[in-house]
């Protein structure tokens, strides 16, 4: 049986190391916040299912084939020829600053509906993971999130929301309007420090107030990501802060998703809050230290690699 269900839009991705306007070579892969989390969990040995729609096209085949190859269950994913598989372009600009360009309006995934995701909750998994990206894709995806989150909570499935605000898709007011009503059904909220206000009540003025109001509203754990400064986790009982692992930054894109995969893996393994955060910053560091959104995600055997001595050889 599936332990973790997730759904969302996975796109074909093209990555350039030089300015796109100058032409040259790009690397083809796939990218999507939820499928990044799914792959991160599958690498760690968890049984995870991804649902969504891809177009009836070669890039859609690439998305499904990649997920299958990474041992992610795609039984409930659909091919929908009414729209294409979306495309995202990543352009390395200066230093570790990456420009992201979407071609996703009218995509197959924007036609997603609650009927796509409800079958993935039967039999109920242990966790449902959603992101704040999906409701921005259109009315069908927004309904899919609302309905799936409510149905999961009703069935006793713990629901994790990564706020993941994408300002290119919608503004903060619209995001808050869509995300705040989900709170009573959420067990885990993951947000960057500047994203907490999109789920917490508008009356909460400080980070502390926002965390407390989410916990008071019934959220079991609130996790705040702070990039290179690490992360904090809060439950009604305790608060833990953890530093980021020190690694050479290769590619920051996907760090947040890798972090979530590590955190949820720790939750599935019944680690305590400190243990969950430790696994999260470890998987986050793998993403930062390797190229691509998900390609560098560690297997369970590799989790300890960052503790090996610098310059040592793996034998
Ligand atoms: P993205 O949306 O780009 O995936 P995010 O904003 O959601 O990222 P961040 O807070 O940037 O997420 O990063 C998530 C986690 O990844 C951090 O909490 C940290 O553990 C790890 N991380 C991020 N940047 C670095 C870094 N420079 N060095 C080491 N670890 C990092």
Indicate the overall shape: globular
Strand order of the largest sheet: 4-1-9-10-11-12-13-14
Ends distance: 35 Å
Bound molecules: adenosine-5'-triphosphate
Whole-number radius of gyration? 18 Å
Largest sheet features: 8 strands, mixed
Strand content: 15-25%
Fourth-level CATH superfamily of the domain at 4-8 and 33-51 and 111-293: Ribokinase
Mean pLDDT: 96
CATH architecture of the domain at 4-8 and 33-51 and 111-293: 3-Layer(aba) Sandwich
> Care to count the β-strands?
14
In the CATH scheme, the class of the domain at 4-8 and 33-51 and 111-293 would be Alpha Beta
Q: Briefly note the CATH topology name of the domain at 4-8 and 33-51 and 111-293.
A: UDP-N-acetylmuramoyl-L-alanine:D-glutamate ligase
Poorly predicted runs of 5 or more residues = none
Features:
315 residues; alpha/beta; UDP-N-acetylmuramoyl-L-alanine:D-glutamate ligase; 8-stranded mixed sheet; 4-stranded mixed sheet; 8 helices; binds adenosine-5'-triphosphate
Map the helices and strands.
Elements: E1 4-7, E2 11-16, E3 27-31, H1 33-43, E4 48-51, E5 53-54, H2 58-69, E6 78-79, E7 87-92, E8 98-103, H3 114-117, E9 127-131, H4 139-154, E10 158-162, H5 172-179, E11 188-192, H6 207-216, E12 221-225, E13 231-234, E14 239-242, H7 255-268, H8 273-288
Parallel strand pairs: 1-4, 1-9, 2-7, 5-6, 9-10, 10-11, 11-12
Antiparallel strand pairs: 2-3, 7-8, 12-13, 13-14
Helix pairs in contact: 1-7, 7-8
């Amino acid at each position: 049986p599936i332990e973790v269900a997730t759904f969302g839009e996975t796109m074909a991705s093209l990555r350039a190391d030089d300015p796109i306007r100058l032409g040259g070579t790009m690397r083809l892969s796939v990218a999507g916040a939820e499928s990044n989390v799914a792959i991160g969990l599958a690498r760690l040995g968890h049984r995870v299912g991804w649902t969504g729609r891809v177009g009836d096209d070669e890039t859609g085949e690439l998305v499904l084939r990649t997920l299958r190859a990474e041992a992610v269950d795609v039984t409930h994913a659909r091919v929908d020829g009414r729209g294409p598989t979306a495309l995202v372009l990543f352009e390395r600009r200066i230093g570790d600053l990456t420009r992201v360009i979407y071609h996703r309006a009218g995509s197959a995934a924007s036609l997603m509906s609650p009927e796509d995701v409800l079958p993935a909750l039967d039999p109920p998994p242990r966790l449902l993971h959603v992101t704040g990206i999906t409701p921005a894709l259109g009315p069908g995806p927004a309904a899919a999130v609302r309905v799936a989150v409510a149905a999961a909570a009703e069935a006793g499935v713990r629901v994790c929301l990564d706020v993941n605000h994408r300002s290119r898709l919608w503004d903060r007011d619209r995001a808050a309007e869509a995300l705040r009503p989900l709170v009573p059904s959420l067990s885990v909220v993951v947000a960057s420090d500047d994203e907490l206000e999109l789920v917490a009540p508008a009356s909460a003025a400080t980070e502390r107030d926002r965390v407390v109001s989410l916990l008071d509203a019934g959220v079991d754990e609130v996790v705040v990501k702070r990039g290179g400064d690490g992360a904090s986790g809060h439950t009604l009982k305790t608060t833990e802060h953890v530093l980021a692992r020190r690694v050479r930054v290769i590619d920051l894109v996907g760090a947040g998703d890798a972090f979530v995969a590590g955190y949820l893996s720790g939750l599935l393994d019944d680690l305590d809050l400190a243990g969950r955060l430790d696994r999260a910053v470890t998987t986050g560091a793998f993403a930062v230290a390797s190229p691509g959104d998900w390609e560098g995600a560690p297997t369970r055997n590799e989790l300890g690699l960052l503790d090996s001595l610098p310059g040592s050889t793996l034998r």
